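User: quick one - fold this with calcium ion bound?
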Amino acid sequence: MAVQKQFTGTLRYGDPALTGGVSVHDKQFDELFAYDGPLGLGIGDEQITFHLWAPTAEEAYVNLYADAQTDVCTRHAMTRGERGSWSFEGTEALLEQYYTFSVVIEGEETEAVDPYARLVGVNGDRGFIGRLNHTNPEGFDAKTKPAFVNPTDAIVYEVHVRDFSIQPQSPFVNKGKFLAFTEQAGLDYLTNLGVTHVQLLPVYDYSTDSVDETRLSEEQYNWGYDPKNYNAIEGSYATDPYDPYVRVRELKQAIQAMHGRGLRVIMDVVYNHVYDAYRMNFMKLVPGYYYRYENGVLANGSGCGNDTASERYMMRRFIVDSIRYLATEFGFDGFRFDLMGLHDTETMNEVRRVLDEIDPTILVIGEGWHLNTPMDAEAANQSNAVLMPRIAHFNDGIRDGLRGSAIEFEKTGWVNGHKRIEDVRVGVVGSIQYDEHIKGFAVEPDQCVTYIEAHDNHTVWDKLIVSNPKASDEERTKMHRLASAVMMTSQGIAFVHAGQEFMRTKGGVENSYKSPTPVNQMDWVRVEERAEDVTYMKELIRLRKRYDVFRMTSAEQIRNGLTFMKSPKHSLAYTLEGADERVYVIHNANKTMRTFHLPKEAWTIVFGEAQIKERAHDMEVRVDGMTTLVLEGVKES
Ligand code: CA
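Assistant: Sure. Structure tokens for the protein plus calcium ion:
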């Protein structure tokens, strides 16, 4: 990541007369300049207003351009207002022009994109003055969405926009584009699978260094965890990246089509760092303010060169404003916070509060990892889940417990040879406080995302190749299926990575963020080849949806209704009881058959195969090695 300039020293920018000599990092700075007024572009019937927050600037300007790329510019001085804000009011004659802001700080002028820009030109280098209602597809209503109530009913499917449809053999017309999600083939595939939510890897406008929107005929690829304009949309997924309306309209078309087929949509948001701190508008407009520093240099808990400072008033406000905009304008049904552990709990709770005002069924999930960042606030990580009700954390415990460490490639998990079962049990209960031995991070199951594979790290299939090099294809298939079966019969919010159903491989690449298309693409040929595995996942999803007891809504319910049963070594058995349901789940991680003893009842097999023999005092059930069996019992009334 290119770093252009390192700021060191006292971080005091601009004319001290403007800030009273207060550094952007002093608490006093927020006391003096925390601003709640309008920001960004305001488009009325006749006038257009521009608002900017730049307390350390001595002068500020609006630059106007006829198009996104030429340099002919007219500029207007902005007027300094209260608490470090600036404004300029123009007429509707400015419509459909491009704009940027310039600020003069310590005599030096810098040009930056409006952080609040919603419409942008190609590569997001300039904002665009346009009416958002021009981006609405026919019949679009952000408030019309599929019915959904309990977060634990969610079965999330994580997919990269381009990966989904880019393969030459794929059935799509709009390959690599938002519009592929409006095509019947994809919608049929997703709805047949039975998932409830589609989670898109970043669709905000990301860095030109990653994907240059002017060179789309060339091979370029990136996941997009390198934000450039948070409120604007990535142009490379649009059919025309030069028309500012098109990228927004086509994303809305994708959401509209998915909503129309009963699928909810989650946006992946990455407010914890920016692509390049020094080239990003935040640093240009209020140098130093939006980031955390350690010994005078940018903190790097993100591993991406900088950490934003969510605990500061205007960074928090930016995140909350952005989420509010994206939820209301696009009708997103959830947000996945990248490296959420870098944010503070107050910001995340404010996000939750604002979303509740819009629609309380909108999900908030995130990576609540423990990260090393200098923050004078409570971190939004797993350990602080108690402070953040209804915000979920990915459970890396069940992931590593089942398949082996994500970092130590050769290490195995419960399905591929390791005996340790503790983390798996914690995962099965949705990481709640179950008893004195089984204790997870969550207070309630809606705070736990249960998963074994995501875009990060090896796919399960690739992990099984590096961890179990001597296993056969058939053995790995069984391990893979068993891992998916344990996660799908566990409590919490279920999450699968696109392709997990066909044992996706990225050819052993464990960090494919910029790997070429053949590594990252969804392999629709493999979908056919592995049709039985796809059916297996489909049946698991159907099973999870059929019984409420797989999707309990409270920790109390889990403590009362889920009971671990005595079972042979290296197997796991538990019963689930709800108001009208009684289910017995058996996972046999041994290579060979094991015998289980169930209470003498009228059990019906609802998933898997086994021989059942009725005996004097119990039922003897023989379950093949490396398989899962689920039985339904009769609920006594
Ligand atoms: Ca871009």
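One thing worth noting: Confidence is low (pLDDT under 50) at residues 1-10.
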